[in-house]
Each structure stands twice: as C-alpha cells, then as structure tokens.
Amino acid sequence: MRTTAFFLLILSTLSLSLKAQDLDYPDFRSKKDFFSKINDKDIRADVASFALAAVDESIGKAQLQTVPPVDYGSNFMKFSDGNITVIIKTGLFIPSKHKLMMQEGHLLRIDNHPYYGGVYGQQPHTTIEAVTVLVGKDTVAIPATAYSDLYEPKFSYNEGGSNRTRNGVYLSNDKHTFYIYMLNIDNGGTEYTWVIRDKQYLRRVVDFGFLK
User: Fold this and answer.
1) Helices assigned H by DSSP within 94-181
2) Sign of the alpha-carbon dihedral angle for 29, 41, 201, 83
3) Number of folded domains that form the chain
4) Coil, helix or strand at residue 27
C-alpha cells in the first residue's frame, strides 16, 4: 500500500509546483492512453497500485514487488535485479532537429504529433532517447513510438540532502508482466508507464494534469 510519507511529499510539493494551465489555444493531446481507458482488469489493478492518476482505485491495493534502481546519472537511470534490467536514457531537446507547429508563440505539435510532459505550449528541455529492456539474455524491443512524444522525464529529487526517485519497475504477482514507471509532479503532473508482458512490449499508459 502506498506510504503516507509519499503522499505528504506530493502535497507539500504541490503548493510550490502547480500552476493551472488555462489554455487559450488548441490542445491536441490525446487521452487514449489514460489510465481510465485501460480495459484489461489485471493491468488496471496493477497500475492502480502505483500510479497517481489511479489514486481513486488504489485503496486496498498491495504494493507490487519492485526491481531496484542500481545506478543513475544526469542522463540515465538503471534498474536491475539480476534477471530484469531496464535502462532509460535522456537527451536535450534541440528545436532545429524537429518540425514545430506553433500558434501565436505556443507550441502545439512536435514532428506532427502532440507531445506530453513539461508545460504544454512551451518547448520541452529534455527528451527520452531510449528505453532498453533485458530479461535474462533476451532484449525486449521497445518501439520509438512508445516514448518519442514524451518529454521532461525526471530521474531524482533531493530530500534532506539525499537523492531519491519517484520512478520504479513493478512486477505483477504472476511475474508475466512488469511495468516501467516514470513520474514528474511538476505542471499538473505527468506519468509514463510502459507495460511488458512475456518479454514483449504490450502498451503504454500516459496521464497528465491529474494533480491540478
């Protein structure tokens, strides 16, 4: 079950980081990958145990077993338990390398696609460059479309002089499925979850604006 300390952290940070976005320009972001759209009952129950967008369904959900973080730097984070290894790498957003759709100074699309993360209408600063997943000796192919429109990932935050993370890799109870999760609580909150089942990428869950 989620800890009281975690929620206190979210609430204390919320008052400092949130600013409601009253958009006066089109918002092309889709909600098709929202937690609320998940039909698979097992995936829905698992994601509800850790995702903030699913807090209404989290009551009574036990915390899933996790794959621990073992290393991180300014542009990468690694989780590993000896069997499952996940490495997420980030890069800088370079506007000249992308096609930007603008309206009166507001950014609406990147490379003809809506984008998620950061402040909608403003250029993001960081990208997700790659998500590498190994199960045993097998590589799980994660398509670029699973993360190419996701921006502003955060690996860690400082609390009391110690670096901590809100991200995680969670294992389903039957061990056939695991979830790679990233959370950024800034600007109304964004969270990304990639679902891996039986060594294959299955889908993603993308939520935003759930902390407004």
Assistant:
1) none
2) positive
3) 1
4) coil
Backbone angles phi, psi at 77, to 5 degrees: -145, 140
C-alpha span between 169 and 69 (Å, rounded): 8
Tell me the residue range of the domain where 132 lies: 4-208
Q: What is the pLDDT of residues 37-88, one digit of tens each?
A: 999 999 999 999 999 999 999 988 889 999 999 999 999 999 999 999 999 9
Which tokens hold the place of 206?
């993308």
| Rounded (5°) CA angle 56-60-61 | 85
**Whats the size of the chain, residue-wise?**
212
Question: Do 166 and 154 contact (CB within 8 A), yes or no?
Answer: yes
Give pTM, 2 decimals: 0.89
Question: Would you say 130 and 139 are in contact if contact means Cβ atoms under 8 Å apart?
Answer: no
Our CA dihedral for 41, 199, 81, 92, rounded to 10 degrees, sits at: -90
